[in-house]
Amino acid sequence: MRITDLESGTVYAVRTPFRDDRGTLVLEGDRMTYERHRAVPFEGAFEVAFREETLVLHEDRQKDVVEHAERFLREV
């Protein structure tokens, strides 16, 4: 599941800790309510808005999170 497949309004719990492209640490057990995403094409990244935090995930540097979101997030 790609990060773009997350469903708006759904609460996700973090399975595996990770950092976004700005260095924000997301910890196991954190709960986040997905709102939307926006591609940032000139940076090759996604801005992923959760109610609690906005993350920036780069297509290359956070490839695992972008391409395999189910390994990092689970629906609550």
Automatic annotation (TrEMBL):
Origin superkingdom: Bacteria
Protein name: DUF3006 domain-containing protein
Annotated organism of origin: Rubrivirga litoralis
